[in-house]
Amino acid sequence: MWNKVLAYLQFLLFGRHCPFCGKALPFEEWCCPDCSRQAEEHWFWECPLCGESPCACSSQERLLDGLIARVDYHHGGKEAVLALKSGSRPSAAEAMGWMMAAWMEEEDWTLLPLDLILPAPSVSGPFREKGEHAVLLARQLSRSTGIPCWSGYLQKKRFTRRQHTLSSAGQRRENLRQRLRLRCPETFAGKRVLLVDDVVTTGSTLKECARLLKRNGVQEVYAIAFCRTRRKLE
Question: For the chain, what is the mean pLDDT?
Answer without folding.
Answer: 80
